[in-house]
Amino acid sequence: MDRHLAVVALAATVLCAGCTSRPAPSTATDAWRGGLSTPVADTLYPEHGNPGLDVLHYDLKLDWQPASKVLTGVATLRVRPVVAASSIVLDFANLAVDTVTVDDAPATGTLADQKLTVPATLVADRPVTLVVGYHGTPEPVSYPSRRGDAKEGVGLRPAKGGGLWTMQEPWGALTWYPANELISDEALYDIAVTVPEGWAAVASGTPGPVDGTTYRYTSADPVATYLTTLAVDRYQKVTATGPHGLPLTYWVVPETDDKLLTELKKSPKMLTWLESKLGRYPFETAGALVNGSISAMETQQMLSLGRPGGSWSEDTRRWFEQTLVHEYAHQWFGDAVTPSTWTDLWLNEGFAQYMQYLYEQEIDGFSDAALETFLRGRDAQLRKSVGPPGKPKAANFAESNVYVCGAAMLKELNDALGDTEFFALMTAWVAEHRNTNQDRAAFITFVEARTGTDFSELINAWLDSPTTPA
Fold this sequence. Notes:
hydrolase; Aminopeptidase N
């Protein structure tokens, strides 16, 4: 996720001065084995998600009517109970439930406190199929942060003029489909969205065929709920080709987004640069949609980018370019390899922020010494005001410490190893842990195993110290 609202652009500043493995598939889950997870209760936000359930696959059939602002949906979930239970409990908010079935048998669904509860006899590791029909006008929900975009809330919301868009970290999928909002429960997806003539629907995943005005997207790699996206607007579809023939798709509103499209067309060069550092892009397609947010998200295979406010300027252009690199870097760090809990958000944001800084350094030509000075100065400020990145506070979700302080730790590790060994380490981290959830302990163990050196003191100091380490 973008942190431009709390972090001054580096170039301007310096120029002025534990592992969650996937369970083995059983015959009952073999068809959806790519969606198998080991859900764990989130330590920061235990009120969200259900660690007793592992959603293997979401099939979402949606219809959006811009005139009435009504979303109608049928969500079919293939769910593996982790433990025996007497009900299916999922996150769901602000929409009305019309019909519910469990394994084709009629059932009831009760909504309360952003939870959908469906009575059912669940046997551990015996999957069931839940189908929920629903409708309503979606509304965002709040999340705990002092970030500038926290005022927007998170989740799906109608846009002026009849469109629709979402930003949803650490939760928000619950505003448009019944979801298990655990970062550790990743699933496969099929999304079909029907819109009126003249409108286009965009979602995360690989674009599929368009049938009339129904747009289809498939995620063959598992996706955490916060990394899904949906947008409807009078979009123009622009296609391009990235490194090694990678299909790229940009969704923009003509005239409104012309300047942004010019920057989006730099994507092949950005992805080529990232691949030179991190190895092959981890998914089968890439792209970006532009929406009405003031922020940006690394939604899987299809970035969600807000339109910059105010007049277009060189500073605005630079911010958008830097943001684009940041969100593409997340496809490796956060999407291909995802933290097990929100406590380890630095595993996402520190890595993406460091790659953004290195890109800015290459474009603007400032020195390693300048980068070090910036990082240490900003790191000291953030540890004092927000705390260390490895001990985030529930009330301060995704504030700048997990970005900048995490990047500062990676700079120290990079300096200790040198570029060749450091980027070989980063490439191997993603390649060997692709489509899994990881934690701090797993990262420390991996670094020692790959380098032959115990870097736990360095890593833990930068993640836990209340002041900037020496």
